[in-house]
Amino acid sequence: MGRGVKGKEKLDPARMKAEDEKRRSFQMHTKYIAPILILVSSILISCNTTFNTTLDIPVSDEVRTSAYEISFKYIGMDYEWGGQDFWYEENRKVDCSGLVINIYKEACEEYGYSLPFDDTTAKVLHDTYTIELITPQPGDLIFMGDNGEVTHVAIFHRFIGDQIEFLDAYSTSKKVGIRQYPKASEKFISFGRLLMR
Length: 197
Known about the structure:
The protein is α+β, with helices and mostly antiparallel strands and 197 residues long. 34% of the residues lie in helices and 27% in strands.
C-alpha cells in the first residue's frame, strides 16, 4: 500500500509549475493587454473609425471570369449619371461605377460572395476597394481620368496589339459599349482587382 491519505492526489511539481505559469499569463493579459485593447478601441471610436472585422479578399478567378461574361449583357444599355440599373430591368440606365458594381454584384452572388459596399464612385473603388495590378485579366478593372485623378472606371476585356479593349458606360456616346484606347494613353491611371467578402 502506498503512503498518504486515501482520495488525495500526490502533488506533481511540474504540473503545479505549469498551472502557476498559466495563471501568471492570464494575470498579465488582464493587467496589461486588456487595457491596451480598450484604449485602442476607444481611440478608433473617437476618430469615428469603424473597425472592420470582416476580411475583404480579391475576387476569385471564377468571379472575375463571370463578371467578364456578364459584362456583355450590358452592351447597348443607356448611360445616365447616377444610373444603377441591372441589364434585365426595364427602362434601364447606368453610369460607369454603377455598371461595374452591378456586374460584380451578380458575379459575386453567383458564387456566394458579396461586395463590401452597396454603391460608390470610381475614385473610391480605386482608393479603397481594389488592389493594384500590373497585368490585368479579363474582368479586372481599368481606372481612367485626367492628371492622375480617377474619374472613370471600366471592365478590362483584352489587349489587342498596342490597344486596350474595355467595356464601359460612356457619357459621350450615352451608351454602354466596347471601346479601345492605346496603351500609352494618358487617360489610363491603373488596373485593379476588386475586393469581395
